[in-house]
Amino acid sequence: MTPRLRRTTTRWGLIAAIVVTACAGASWPVTAEPPAASKEPDPVPMVAIPAGEFLMGNPEGKGRADEWPQRSVYLDAFAIDHVEVTNERYMAFVAATGHRNPPNPYGSGPLTSIKGIEQLPVVQTTWYDAKAYCGWAKKRLPTEAEWEKAARGTDGRRFPWGNEPATAKRANFDREWVDEKTLYPVGSLPDGDSPYGVKDMAGNAREWVADWYDPDYYKYAPARNPQGPDKKGVVRSIRGGSWHSPLADITASARGRGGFALQTHGTGFRCARSLEGEAQQK
């Protein structure tokens, strides 16, 4: 049966969405995007992830110990950026706010001085840089649980696209640095899309999330809307792997970590927005 498209226009703060409907029981992604006249600072399309349960983590014996145990976790509805934040979008934030320029991995001078990298994901951002950008964009960093649900859907699959092996058409990973040819333009590998249509959640750039990192968090985390451990420290969670990551680090369940002042050629981010209330970031 061919899906029927119905465009619903509302105030962007309440989400303007393209709602895809089909036969009863079918599940379709909802893509939220601002109207053409939007004055949003960052009018990138977002994908609405419906409320409900998903399988988070891995069964003991699979993956790494910090992914155990696998649990059923309930999340309220939220929206997440369709693609990673690009150099172009990040430099608009810098121009608007006076925020510091990130280090330029491609040469000297600001990122705006290098042509042809506008649609590559911004990297070398700290956790604080990522949080500041999302705040400017009237969004927030996703929680670790939100990121994982957006990446793998509800069925506990190994990769965003399923359980099939990773290929060069599905993910940018396990490569060496070759300047402007290292990172791929966002959204350029559609074979690697998640079940919700979220792009580049395996490889390309690793992504900061909101949570503090605790290798044992899954053993005691709440089963509803986990926000990360309460303890404070210097290490935040990072998800998704990068262009340099081995296969084990680009799975949908793999957990990375880094000090919140960390800046690397492989770490960027994307933003999220709550659709039912606002989650607090720690």
Automatic annotation (TrEMBL):
Residue span, Sulfatase-modifying factor enzyme-like domain: 46-273
Q: Name one Pfam family in it.
A: FGE-sulfatase
Q: Which residues form the signal peptide?
A: 1-32
Question: Which GO terms of the molecular function aspect are on file?
Answer: formylglycine-generating oxidase activity
Q: Which InterPro entries match?
A: CTDL_fold, Sulfatase_Mod_Factor_Kinase, SUMF_dom, SUMF_sf
Keyword Signal: yes or no?
yes
Give the Gene3D superfamilies listed for this entry.
Answer: paralog of FGE (formylglycine-generating enzyme)
Ordered alphabetically, the record's keywords are: Signal
Task: Kindly provide the name given to this protein in its UniProt entry.
Answer: Sulfatase-modifying factor enzyme-like domain-containing protein
Taxon lineage: Bacteria, Pseudomonadati, Nitrospirota, Nitrospiria, Nitrospirales
Coiled-coil region(s) at which residues? Answer: none
Give a yes or no for keyword NAD in this entry: no
